[in-house]
Known about the structure:
Elements: H1 6-12, H2 39-46, H3 61-74, E1 78-82, H4 85-96, E2 102-106, H5 111-123, E3 127-131, H6 136-142, E4 147-153, H7 165-174, E5 178-182, E6 200-204, E7 218-222, H8 224-239, H9 245-255, H10 258-278, E8 282-286, H11 296-302, E9 310-315, H12 324-333, E10 339-340, E11 350-352, H13 354-357, H14 364-369, E12 376-380, H15 386-400
Parallel strand pairs: 2-3, 2-4, 4-5, 5-6, 10-11
Antiparallel strand pairs: 1-7, 6-7, 8-9, 9-12, 11-12
Pyridoxal-5'-phosphate binds next to helix 4.
Amino acid sequence: MDKYRFETKIIHAGQKPDKTSKALATPIYQTSTFCFDSVEEAGDVNFGRQPGYMYSRAANPTVDAIQEKLCALEGGEAAVFTSSGMGAIGSLMVGMLESGDHLISGDTVYGGTDYVLRTNLPRMGIEVTMLDTRDLEAVKAAIKPNTKMIYVESPTNPTLKLTDISAISKIAKEHGIKVAVDNTFSPPPIQYPLALGADLVVHSVTKYINGHGDVIAGAVIGNAEDIQSIKAHGVTKLCGTTPSPFNAYLTLRGAKTLPLRIRQHCENAMELARFLEKREEVKLVNYPGLESHPQHELAKVQMNGMYSGIISFELKEGINGLSAFEAGKKLLNNLKLMAIAVSLGDPDTLIEHPASMTHDNVPVEERMKIGITDGLIRVSVGLEHIDDLKEDLEQAFEALQK
Ligand SMILES: Cc1ncc(COP(=O)(O)O)c(C=O)c1O
């Protein structure tokens, strides 16, 4: 597949006509187990002396097909598909780290990941340092003899700060440390962490890669040795975060249109970000594609000039006498088209007010420290007509004055 361009690879990789029926679409092998003609054959398959399948927790043909497609997507040697993005992240940690190791992570990561890093890993004897990975000197200073991995999300959720993946990878290589990047927010053709020097990429496939809002799944992509370790210790043996063949099938189908969808998400997001920048109710718009983004120059290179479909913006205090917190809630409650929902990367525009919806239980000071201010709103810009999205926001902004 290497000689083909991205749009071609993402359609064809992993998809061969079915051996028995010649079906073009990969069949859903919805089975727990596989049969053998003899005990000898079972032993040979189980111990890898001959190809084949034994039990779907370990391997399944539909899952193999999506794993091959995901390799082509990120340019990795091997991939493992998991039952959720958190399953991928948990399996990465369990598969790559052990008691006594030290992990450096960005201090702004997805909430579930944050919990695993702060709670589960220390319980397993893994030391974790969380810091602002935009600060390369701070990263260098945090490296210890037992540091095994640097873990980053770029752009971060929901403040859309970037980490220089190339620079971090260079530092890590000098110390023999692995770099893992959560690339959920900006999948190819936007950002290619492996090409930038990272060793492993994780995804919540739930989001852009499947792209239709009907699957929970995840993946880790990297070199064959690391993926085998993650598969054996994390996914298949210990955690069992095995995906269903049906979700593998849906993702095979969804991923084929990834480049088309990504282009439209990016185009709509750029236009909506510019629209929001002009609204007098808005204090600040976070979008790496805007010239006003403090890391726009890095984004141009690292995100291939595409910037993804996620925007966050802050409402001003005192609009029509409302606090920013109340204005955030009121704005969302007046939307007619955009869905008030967490998640991202769906064809539908999803909008959320983190302070009231997802971070209500976080002490205000802590919430502020990670940039989740009272009036912050995150939008996963969908594939609807941009004018309908603007009109929906416009009428909701007008409703704030009533
Ligand atoms: C950046 C990021 N990583 C990982 C996850 C976890 O993925 P999942 O919900 O598929 O377990 C999410 C979920 O929102 C996410 O946004």
